[in-house]
Design a protein that fits this description.
Layout (H helix, E strand, L loop, with lengths): L1 H17 L2 H21 L4 E8 L7 H8 L11 H8 L2 H11 L3 E6 L4 E4 L5 E5 L5 E11 L4 E14 L7 E2 L11 E3 L3 E4 L2 E7 L7 E6 L2 H11 L1 E4 L6 E8 L2 H59 L6 H35 L9 H4 L4 H21 L7 H46 L4 H36 L5 E8 L8 H26 L6 H7 L4 E6 L8 H4 L4 H16 L6 E7 L6 H13 L5 E5 L7 H5 L7 H6 L8 E6 L2 E4 L8 H5 L2 H13 L2 E5 L9 H4 L5 E7 L8 H9 L6 E8 L32 H6 L3
Parallel strand pairs: 15-22, 16-20, 16-21, 17-19, 17-20, 21-22
Antiparallel strand pairs: 1-13, 1-14, 2-3, 2-11, 4-10, 5-6, 5-11, 6-7, 6-8, 9-10, 12-13, 18-19
């Protein structure tokens, strides 16, 4: 049983929406049409994509050694997350935008939309960005001829860009006004906070073009936000770069330029080591060049003055040995100077680029690895700091690695200095011993040996430094970025937006949801009684019957059209009354309602008429003394009636009027009295009703609305059956409480509900199976027979 109830509720819900099918269908059509128009005129958005290969550094000797010694923080490999952060950094975007010169944007004005023009623009606008400039807003130019154009401000939403504070823009203090409207191509257009020129490229007369200015920081921020960078999968070190833009070529150029700047930045970091080495060697060469020149001149002068050119055999041996020791001492001194420079660098916590030990000639593999690792970590730190704050986890982690490497390198350098000083002391001792042998040579040869020895020392050092400089320059020239571009930017063939199929579906769904939502809210906020089932649930008495809407002008369809469906509904109501009050020869029936206009008079007249058709002697009594209506429906004059009887000695039989139909008499309410309530509460009224009941088989009371007047409550005592009339789409839902109060608090028994003017099909069929769609109408009475239609056809009928 509960399952059946649920099915009925679903059917009712469906009917409630289907009766609005023209509105729903129209909204769905409008939704699809709106989506189609949006698709047609919306700007196409394309996706530009490229890929970058991020190569991880192979662990060096120093890294392996320190990992084994517990210093595992030394890791030289690139971090994918760091590379993503660099690619999405503001500084990289700013460099790329600056290279592309995108600060002037051009637009073509269309009927429905405005499209951006890139590259092949008919004019070229040049801007002086060294002074404050207006950004935002929009200018419009129309070419007048080959030499001049007209310019106007189309949108004045300007901000002032100040190169002294490029990341903060202000609102112009004064209204932006152009000094004149017509300018020549190439003429400077200047004013408060703006200065630019418009140059002719390929513009033709009557061409119209829009343009605006955008500062580099704003463009960089936009591109930074729009750019998406992500690994192609979790295991790969290949990054996918994508950008959605309405201008395909612009997107491609930006991503390509950004990747170029990204690799160029990495290469510059790598070249810093070679550049530092070259600077160090050049500093050494500056001093040794002067010494070499001086020693060469002294040797030449001595040879010329003393006519001595070659050493003796003994002197040559001593010289050769000294030359070897001096060369070794020179290299050792350079190494010691490098170690001392490195120790000073570490002690002062400097962050300049280090000179590689291998360039100087230091062959210690551990020292070389440590210096290389420190240099790489510092380069990474510089890159990270240019994109992240000092508190970023990646920056803090890399700083820890740098400190660990510094500590290890400091210990290694101190040890190297001690060892080098010992080697240098030994070399000096050997040279000192040979110098004693030199003293045994003749004075002339001894002096020649001294000059030649000094020249040879300087020459060897000079040649050695030149060789190392050449090696450093070759290393710099051979440097390549470790990362590389796999795919240059390429735009997909189809736009990614607008999503045409999805938009049509959304339009269809919105066209369906919006009217259904509106109907749902309307029904929720509706305070009128429409659903018979809801009425039946709200009242605490049975709902006996429903009377359909009457669309004709006849107030008494039961008498004038006995075959109408409205008449049949009253016959059904009459049949129900035989069960409500069985085995009664005389029957008194009372009709009332909550307010005026709910159709109680219409119902009471036709119920009286349906009993008259049975041959029952019936009388209809108008007890609504304030607002009588019965007289006009029967074409009678309300000159006398119940108020006449109650306010005078006139007998009730004298005020009975014929309705013009067999077996049906009428007692009108009579002239409107000043005290209707008091009249109906007289004992005389009760006596009159007892006499009337004795004379007639059926007595019908047309009473005033019980929700408006008080005397109706007293009239329930004189009736056998009472009906409370509701009107569909008119009676308030709260009025059901009036009926419930009559039962619960007023003690009224034998009272039932009747729903009049039923015209809104809620899915039940009118009259719980009667299928009538007629009855009481607004300001009109009559009947209109209809053939009962299937439920789906009734649902498709408009209200």
């Amino acid at each position: 049983m509960p399952q059946k109830e649920d099915e009925i509720d679903l059917k009712v819900l469906l009917f409630n929406y289907l009766q609005y099918w023209p509105i729903i269908a129209t909204c769905m059509f409008l939704g699809i049409a709106s989506a189609f128009i949006f698709n047609k005129y919306a700007t196409n958005i394309y996706k530009v994509e490229s890929t970058v290969l991020v190569v991880d550094d192979k662990p060096s000797l120093g890294t392996d050694l320190f990992e084994s010694s517990g210093l595992g923080m030394l890791q030289g490999k690139s971090n994918i997350e760091n590379e993503i952060g660099i690619l999405k950094s503001f500084s990289l975007a700013e460099e790329s935008v600056s290279e592309l010169n995108l600060n002037v944007q051009y637009f073509a004005e269309g009927f429905f939309k405005t499209s951006q023009i890139y590259l092949n623009t008919p004019v070229l606008v040049t801007v002086d960005w060294d002074q404050p400039q207006l950004v935002g807003g929009m200018f419009r130019i129309e070419v007048l001829n080959e030499d001049s154009f007209e310019i106007e401000i189309l949108s004045d939403e300007f901000r002032v860009f100040n190169p002294a504070d490029p990341y903060y823009k202000t609102i112009p203090e004064n209204e932006v006004i152009l000094k004149k409207s017509i300018y020549s191509f190439g003429e400077l257009i200047e004013g408060e906070n703006y200065a630019f020129t418009v140059n002719q490229v390929s513009a033709l007369p009557e061409d119209v073009l829009l343009f605006n200015f955008v500062d580099t920081p704003s463009l960089a921020l936009k591109f930074k936000t729009d750019l998406a960078v992500a690994p192609i999968n979790k295991q790969a070190s290949i990054l996918s770069l994508s950008l959605e833009t309405p201008v395909r070529k612009l997107g491609e150029n930006y991503i390509n330029k950004m990747m170029e700047m990204y690799l160029d930045r990495e290469l510059k970091e790598k070249n810093r080591a070679s550049e530092s080495t070259i600077r160090f060697i050049e500093e050494q060469l500056t001093g040794i060049s002067d010494s070499l020149r001086f020693s060469e001149n002294k040797l030449q002068e001595y040879r010329t003055e003393n006519r001595v050119f070659n050493l003796s055999e003994e002197g040559s041996v001593i010289f050769q040995r000294l030359q070897e020791l001096e060369k070794e001492r020179g290299q050792t001194e350079i190494n010691l100077k490098y170690y001392q420079t490195l120790r000073t660098y570490l002690a002062n916590n400097q962050n300049m680029e280090l000179v590689a030990p291998s360039i100087i000639g230091v062959t210690d593999p551990l020292l070389n690895s440590l210096v290389e690792s420190l240099s790489t970590l510092q380069a990474d730190q510089n890159r990270l700091k240019s994109n992240f704050s000092d508190q970023a986890p990646a920056v803090k982690e890399n700083a820890t690695r740098i400190q660990n490497t510094r500590n290890a390198l400091q210990e290694n350098v101190n040890s190297a200095i001690r060892n080098t000083e010992n080697v240098l002391a030994d070399l000096n001792s050997q040279i000192k011993m040979l110098e004693q042998d030199v003293n045994s040579l003749p004075e002339t040869e001894r002096k020649l040996l001294g000059f030649q020895r000094q020249f040879s020392i300087n020459e060897n050092i000079y040649v050695y430094l030149l060789q190392k400089k050449a090696e450093a320059e070759i290393t710099k020239a051979a440097n390549m970025p470790k990362n590389s571009i796999l795919d240059y930017a390429k735009t997909g063939q189809l736009p990614v937006a607008p999503k045409r199929s999805l938009n049509l579906l959304i339009g269809l769904i919105l066209g369906l949801i919006l009217p259904i939502g509106f109907i749902t809210v309307k029904d929720f906020l509706n305070t009128k009684i429409e659903d018979p089932k809801e009425l039946e649930n709200q009242i605490k008495v049975p709902l006996i019957g429903m009377i359909g809407r009457n669309t004709s002008e006849d107030a008494i369809p039961v008498l004038n059209n006995p075959r109408s469906s409205v008449t049949e509904s009253f016959r059904s109501l009459r049949a129900d009354m035989s069960y409500l009050s069985p085995n009664r020869e005389n029957l008194a029936i009372l009709f009332t309602s909550s307010i005026s206009g709910e159709g109680k008079t219409f119902v009471s007249i036709n119920v009286a008429a349906v009993y008259a058709l049975m041959g029952k002697k019936t009388i209809l009594i108008g007890l609504d003394l304030r607002k009588p209506k019965i007289a006009e429906h029967f074409g009678l004059v309300n000159d006398k009636g119940m108020s006449t009887c109650l306010s005078s000695n006139t007998s009730w039989k004298e005020v009975v009027k014929s309705s013009g139909h067999n077996h049906l008499d009428v007692i009108l309410s009579g002239p409107i009295p000043p005290n209707p309530a008091e009249l109906l509460l007289q004992d005389k009224f009760g006596q009159i009703l007892r006499e009337i009941k004795a004379e007639y088989d059926v007595v019908i009371f047309d009473c005033p609305p019980v929700g408006l007047v008080s005397e109706t409550k007293e009239l329930f005592a004189f009736s056998d059956i009472n009906f409370f009339v509701f009107r569909q789409g008119y009676s308030m839902k709260g009025n059901t409480q009036i009926l419930n109060n009559l039962v619960e608090k007023g003690g009224v028994s034998k009272i039932y509900g009747v729903l009049n003017d039923v015209h809104i099909d809620k899915g039940y069929g009118y009259g719980y199976g009667y299928g009538y769609g007629y009855g009481y109408g607004n300001n009109s009475y009559g009947y209109h027979e209809e053939v009962q239609l299937p439920w789906w056809k009734r649902a498709l009928k408009r209200r």
